[in-house]
Known about the structure:
Blueprint: H1 7-13, H2 29-39, E1 51-56, H3 59-84, H4 89-108, E2 114-121, H5 132-135, H6 139-151, E3 154-156, H7 166-173, E4 179-189
Antiparallel strand pairs: 1-2, 2-4, 3-4
Helix pairs in contact: 2-6, 3-4, 3-7
Amino acid sequence: MTLPLSPDDLLSTTRSVRKRLDLERPVPLQLVRECIELALQAPSGSNAQGWHWVVVTDADLRRQIGDYYRRSFDLYREARAARARKLSPEREAVQARVASSSDYLAEKMGEVPVLVLACIAASAELPAENQAPLWGSLLPAAWSYQLAARARGLGSAWTTLHLGYEKEVAGLLGIPPNVRQGVLLPTAYFTGETFKPAPRDPLDTVLHLDRW
């Protein structure tokens, strides 16, 4: 059963959910499968469909991934504090709320019922040139997964900090060297019912017509 959301509602209220992930309620694997099956309808370069999805439900594996994520997050937290000092007061208030929820997720990542890793066939060493064709064949599908999850009452968060330990996580899960991880999507039922569009800069500050 899906929520009664219009396309505009779905697109504007699918948020990164961190503090509101329900860590106690089990997530049926069938729901995750439905979300991934819909994600497979996303575009990929040359229709290669080189994506792979690793769904982690084992408690010990989730805990170990959470440990790697927290290690990487500790380094990120230091850099984040330096960036925050350069923000306007209005933006700083918003980012402070994001920081608080990010801190929470870093502590609880290993307790989230389902961890989904979106991966793509590539090479053991990524090319030094523009990698947009590679990741452009995976990330739309990952976003489609989040939309499908939202429609089914599941929350998720877009996270990549674990990639500081990509090889370690790959070894833990048996991911071969020619498959690269793109994003980690912690998934759980969300608590509460209210999601609203996030504050964004006005369109005309980022829109360029014909020329910059």
